[in-house]
Amino acid sequence: MNISKTVSTLTAIDNFIWLGEIKKVLVIAPLRVAEDTWSTEVEKWDHLKHLRISKVLGTPKQRERAMSTEADIYVTNRENVEWLVKQYFGAWPFDMCVIDELSSFKSSKAIRFRALKKVRPYFKRIVGLTGTPAPNSLIDLWPQIYLLDGGQRLGKTITGYRERYFSPGRRNGYVVYNWELKDGAEKAIHEKIGDICISMMAKDYLDVPERIDNRIEVPLSDSAKAEYKRLEKDLILELNGEDITAANAAVLTNKLLQMANGAIYTESKQVINIHDEKINKLEEIVDISNGKPVLVFYNFKHDFDRISKLLDKLKVKYQTLDNSEDIKAWNNGEIEVALLHPASAGHGLNLQYGGNIIVWFGLTWSLELYQQANARLHRQGQKENVIIHHLVAKGTVDEDVMNALANKEVNQNMLLEAVKARLKGGIDG
Fold first, then answer.
1. Angle between the 81-88 and 111-119 helix axes, to the nearest 10 degrees?
2. What is the DSSP track for 170-215?
């Protein structure tokens, strides 16, 4: 992350076009990146301004119009890959493909992977860009490398790849929860893909300001603790006459994360407030920031609503960053607090010019989203140390998420095991 992958790739594309090696490039990116980042980079660099970009986004008619526009680079979001392949498979127009955030193709079962696999042979060149190639484990590499080389290095099937390099870990009958690397497998995989992969760390090339991680423990009231513990133990809770149930451990984890944040959805989708402890801590952070912009990551819609109510009360200017104009306003210092969900702002957005303070109001168990979200501010171009505040509800699943993120081993199964362990030890155990 943060080493100018986009401009480097655009420069390579420009060279390939000039040499006559390629004519039309398809760029597949997360929606927000497709809308803003690639066109912004072209406008920013003098040696790239002549490149023509068409954004294949929006309604089917808008996409068709964009496809009929003469351009060098056609940028679309990954959700449109299936449509694109269905519409133009008979006369595939692209001879180069760039997959921005290649790790979003880490599932071999996903529709987007299967669609792109279908047209893969028609590309002369394929480039994959990602700052998190294996967010969960090296299992994630197979689909990504397959799109690059058609299975030459890691095999033609995910099953063969697993059998060759991994052993089943925890399992329940035929269901395998995780795969463990065989002895020497990691080195073997790296050697197999080394001729087509370049790994670069920002810290080795850039002088990026320090990142300061601040863990803020948020104590819960006795009543909030009791409700949390009851749901954790019994998988069902009655609040204000509404039932809150957790059908399985995965749902339970999600419910507990909500309660740690201060509110929870009932079965009828009503929101029940549990506590305001995190809201109060966020108010303190905004206050001591003395008007400096703050980027707040939230997880649930009720988090957004409660934070918005707080900021309205404080008369603080806030908004989401939904388009290029919003991002420009943030980078110009015109927004005091930006509210973002990590899944919608985790990749590719350049927000480092607008501020240096991040608050994780609600934590995510996705290591990939966590790393990518933090990299929106802690990246090249940032002038100040980046302060990342984590609001951690004491004695809750928040602590397990933080520990897992610190160990860089976070996944759903790990959190479920942590919940089981906490049940045995109690809320303060």
1. 40
2. SEETTEE--EEEPTTHHHHHHHHHTTT-----HHHH--PPPEEEEE
How many Å apart are CA 202 and CA 218, to the nearest integer?
Answer: 33
* Beta-carbon contacts of residue 402 (< 8 Å; ≥ 6 apart): 215, 363, 390, 392
**To 10 degrees, what angle do helices 60-68 and 81-88 make?**
60
3-class SS of residue 226 = helix
CA distance 233 to 422: 10
Amino acid at 10: L
The pair of structure tokens assigned to 308 is 């918005």
Pairing of strands 337-340, 318-319: parallel
Do 136 and 159 contact (CB within 8 A), yes or no?
no
d(CA 42, CA 271): 44
pTM attached to this predicted model: 0.63
- Residue 332, SS3 per DSSP: coil
- Within 8 A by CB and 6+ apart from 301, the residues are none
User: Tens of pLDDT along 92-124?
Assistant: 999 999 999 898 898 999 999 999 999 999 999
Helix (H, G, I), strand (E, B) or coil at 126: strand
How far apart CA 221 and CA 338 sit, in angstroms, is 29
Q: What is the mean pLDDT of residues 277-294?
A: 91
pLDDT band at 423 (very low <50, low <70, confident <90, very high): low
- The pairing of beta strand 179-181 with beta strand 166-168: antiparallel
Closest residue by Cα to residue 128 from 150, 157, 103, 99? 99
107 within 8 A of 141, measured Cβ to Cβ:
no
